[in-house]
Structures are given as C-alpha cells and as structure tokens.
C-alpha cells in the first residue's frame, strides 16, 4: 500500500477546496466529507487516479464506484436520464439518492469507474463535496473512504484510522449528517428497483413518484451493491434483535427501554432514545466502532423497526452480522 510522508488533514472551507482541487487535478486521491459518509475521491476521467482509490481501499476491482456531480447538467454530460430518473433527480438532488443510469455515447468517464458496465451510478452530494465538484468542473468518482470490508467512516478521524497514510489529503468536515450511505435505485421499464436502501427512505421515493419500489434485489451481472458479506464488519461479532445481554457483550440500544442484562453490558450506546430512525442512522457507524473499541467479543443489538431509515439501518446491521469471509 502506498504511504505518504504524512497524510495532510485540512478543515473544510474555501482553502480546503483549493487544496483538494490541486491534489485531484494532479491525479491523486482526497478523502472528503459528504452528507452521507466520507468519500475517497478521484477525478472520474483519469484512470490512474481512479486506480489509486482501489489501491488505498484494497477493494476488489469488480465493484463499480459512484460518480459525484454538482447537478443534473453535469450528469447529462455522461449519462442518459429517462423521465422517471429525471424526476427523482429533480426532487432529491442534491441529496442521498444515487441513480444508476445508462452511459452516454462518447462519455469521458474512465471504465475503471464503472467496472466496464454500460451503466453508471450518479449522485449530487451536499456540502463540501458539492463545492469541490463545482470548483473542479468535472465529476468525482468516490466510494466510501474506508478499507474494503470495514465500516463506512462518518468522521475524518474514522477515515484516518481506516486508511492510515494511504491517502495524501483528508478534509475534515466533522461528523456527517445522514450517517449511512445513499439509497441506490435503478429505473428499468418504468419500474424503480431498490438496489441498496440508504439515506433517503424508500417510502419517500414511493410518495414522490406514486409508485411502489421493486425490492426483489439486483439481477445485474455485477456483485449487488454492498453485498460482500463482510462489508460493514466490526471486529466484534454482532447479534441482532437481541432480547437479553449475554456476559461480555456490549449493547447497541434503540428507544427508551433497555433489554434485560443491559446493566452488565461492557458498554451501552443508544442509537436514539426517542426511537427516531434518522437520528439512529446518523449515529450507527460511529456507535458500532465505539462499541467495537470497548473490547467486547460481541455487540448485542436491540430490535430496530423497519420504518423510515430503519430499513437501511437493518440492512447494514445484517451485513455486519453476516458470517465473516475471514
Ligand atoms: O453515500 C454514498 O453513496 C457514499 C458517498 C461517498 O457518496 N458512497 C458509497 O460508495 O457508498 P460505495 O462505492 O461504497 O458504494 C457504491 C455502490 C457499490 O455497492 C456498487 O456496487 C454500486 O454502488 N454501484 C456502482 N455502480 C453501479 C452500477 N452501474 N450498477 C449497479 N450498482 C452500482
Ligand atoms: Mg462502501
């Protein structure tokens, strides 16, 4: 893995935009805050730059990356919008919705970004990412800024811990607001397929479009989004829908009431006392890593309802609890 003398960390702001732009135009990577999680960004039109993302993440290269844009107009330079996808972009961008769209003839996106597919995942982020892309004037490819198989980072410190010195520049924008990755959908024959639940609740998309999402999962030729079973794995084992805390376990709680045995837990963190799934999503990865650091061999997780962002939270928890590939 490449190491730089020292990873530079800059607070988000106009100086950071200029510094990040210089590094990116030089074909190197920068870890940046978005409203969902931190991304490891590179110029999406530069193959060598994109390759550096895979190098830092130690990610299997068959997993395609999201292209981040400033607006619909920039997305249209390389992707084709059907009317329904356009409506979704107009309503939810900038924001935590990623659209999978056909690539446009003659586009400048490097094939490493799309893993050679004829489609591309696109979203317009909020905050620092948006400012940076605006300044760059071109799309940035960026997966979450963690080593492959680790929890997605919601703070600059988590990026530093996950990627070590393998990235030259990290922009610190504090804790991210949404806390889970974007929702990914793909419109096919007028139907909206949910490829990954995320920061925009599926119900919200159903309300805006007046149609139900197809949750049957991906039939695409690629590994379905985020499907590597160890993708969100902490070091500790995870036990979901726990009804009791076992000796040696830490507890990830939800709501006002604690399950029996909570008083003997190694550590307790409550995602949302009031049972708010938006608040819970924002804290999820941070609390998982903090409980992991408590040294518990297992993290017991109280049941979390499937409403609102509960679907995305349960999806990430199920992946974290899935059998490890080692
Ligand atoms: O919130 C987010 O989405 C964050 C921030 C940084 O934007 N990014 C993120 O990227 O989560 P990443 O690379 O960790 O996840 C992107 C997912 C992958 O699971 C990949 O399989 C899927 O998007 N994907 C990318 N291109 C695709 C395509 N053409 N068709 C289907 N899925 C695709
Ligand atoms: Mg990721």
Quick description:
With 326 residues, the protein is an alpha/beta fold.
Explain the overall architecture:
With 326 residues, the chain is α/β, with parallel strands linked by helices. It has 2 domains: 8-209, DHBP synthase (Alpha-Beta Complex); 237-321, no CATH class. The protein has 10 helices and 14 strands. The strands form 2 sheets. The chain has a 10-stranded mixed sheet with strand order 1-8-2-3-7-4-6-5-9-10, sandwiched between helices. A 4-stranded parallel sheet has the order 11-14-12-13, covered by helices on one side. A hairpin with a 2-residue loop joins strand 9 and strand 10. Helix 1 crosses helix 6 (128-136). The longest helix has 17 residues, at 277-293. It starts with 7 loop residues before the first strand and ends in a 5-residue tail after the last helix. The model is unreliable at 218-230 (pLDDT under 50). The site of threonylcarbamoyladenylate (TXA) has 27 residues, from strand 5 and strand 6. It catalyses: L-threonine + hydrogencarbonate + ATP = L-threonylcarbamoyladenylate + diphosphate + H2O. L-threonine binds at residues 36, 68, 119, 123, 142, 182.
Task: Please tell me what the overall shape is.
Answer: globular
Q: List how many beta strands DSSP finds.
A: 14
The largest pleated sheet is described as: 10 strands, mixed
Record the strand order, biggest sheet: 1-8-2-3-7-4-6-5-9-10
The quaternary state of the protein chains shown equals: single chain
Named CATH architecture of the largest domain = Alpha-Beta Complex
Look at the helices and sheets and give the structural class: alpha/beta
Beta fraction: 15-25%
Ligands (ions, cofactors included): threonylcarbamoyladenylate, magnesium ion
**Topology as H/E string?**
EHEEHEHHEHEHEHEEEHEEEHEH
**Mean pLDDT figure:** 90
Please, how many domains?
2
User: What is the CATH fold-level name of the largest domain?
Assistant: DHBP synthase
Low-confidence residue ranges: 218-230
Catalytic activity: L-threonine + hydrogencarbonate + ATP = L-threonylcarbamoyladenylate + diphosphate + H2O
Family: Belongs to the SUA5 family.
GO molecular function, one term: L-threonylcarbamoyladenylate synthase
Function: Required for the formation of a threonylcarbamoyl group on adenosine at position 37 (t(6)A37) in tRNAs that read codons beginning with adenine.
